[in-house]
Design goal:
Histone Acetyltransferase, Chain A; 201 residues; mainly alpha
């Protein structure tokens, strides 16, 4: 009996110490739960903010790349505009020459039939003749062509119609004399379909 009484007294004394501690632990546990709940909420908010920040960073990087591309495009367009202006400025000087060329080609087109008749006659018939007689033939053909109402260039010759300056220069380098008769003989040689009859001094 005495042992039980001592035990109960001891238990009572322990309870006086433990019960306040239990209450404190309970209160602290409730506070901990509140704090942990608040922490969980804050962590969730931080995750949302981090996700939004990641999206903003990604969008920012995309916008920076897009801005860089736009700046590059603007710079490229600026360079193209400068080149285009230079090209247009350079071509303005060609306008006069092109206009003159068109006018000259239009005139040549009107004279084409008559000029070709003179050149064809010289290719076909003038081979055996001297330079003086060839000039007389061209003069007579031009006169008769005009009588038939066909337009012909003033003082046109076979050399002007069929002669190529580069080819004639090559012939000269190869040893062909530069006189009119020799050049005409070369044009007849290379312009005839058949072997031409000609007298070459």
């Amino acid at each position: 009996m005495r042992v039980w009484v001592k035990a109960m007294i001891k238990y009572h004394e322990v309870l006086k110490i433990v019960n306040p501690m239990r209450e404190t632990a309970r209160v602290m546990g409730e506070k901990l739960n509140v704090v942990m709940s608040s922490l969980a909420e804050k962590q969730r908010m931080v995750r949302e903010i981090n996700a939004e920040l990641d999206d903003l960073n990604a969008n920012g990087a995309r916008l920076v790349a897009q801005a860089k591309k736009l700046n590059d495009d603007i710079e490229d367009c600026g360079k193209k505009l400068v080149r285009a202006e230079k090209m247009i400025g350079g071509l303005e000087g060609e306008k006069v020459r092109w206009t003159e060329t068109v006018a000259d080609l239009t005139h040549q087109k009107e004279m084409l039939i008559g000029d070709c008749l003179v050149a064809a006659g010289m290719i076909s018939y003038s081979g055996p003749f001297t330079a003086v007689y060839r000039e007389e033939l061209e003069t007579e053909w031009r006169t008769n062509i005009k009588k038939f109402g066909i337009k012909v260039t003033q003082n046109v010759t076979m050399k002007k119609v069929l002669g190529d300056d580069v080819t004639i220069r090559k012939w000269g380098v190869a040893g062909l004399p530069s006189d009119n008769l020799s050049v005409e003989n070369g044009i007849i040689m290379f312009g005839s379909r058949r072997w031409p009859l000609m007298i070459d001094p």
